[in-house]
Design a protein that fits this description.
single chain, mainly alpha
């Protein structure tokens, strides 16, 4: 039969081992959750970057169209053809003030 000291030591070892197993499970769980969060934030960053690129492209296109319209306005050559109406709608949506100042007066002359 084991002595009380040996039993106490065995119980302490068992308790210590159980604690280590619990900490291992906790660490594995935290690691898994961290990786999920990391993947989620990486996905968010990719989405934001794609949307930002899209907005920059649309802004450059709108600025180019506005520049062409302003150049035509300065030259007195602005006219509204049926195929140009979608571009004017885009300009009006992107910058209503530019549309009102530069395009509407030319449309009223036509």
């Amino acid at each position: 039969m084991a002595s009380p000291a040996a039993e106490a030591e065995g119980d302490a070892v068992s308790a210590g081992f159980a604690e280590l197993e619990w900490q291992q499970l906790l660490l594995a769980s935290c690691t898994r959750l961290y990786k999920q969060l990391e993947e989620h934030f990486a996905s968010l960053e990719r989405g934001i970057a794609a949307r930002s690129d899209s907005l920059h492209h649309k802004r450059r296109a709108t600025e180019a169209r506005a520049s062409r319209l302003l150049a035509a306005r300065r030259g007195g050559r602005i006219w509204v053809e049926e195929e140009r109406r979608p571009d004017l709608a885009l300009l009006h949506h992107a910058s209503p003030s530019l549309f009102l100042v530069f395009v509407m007066p030319a449309m009223e002359r036509d």
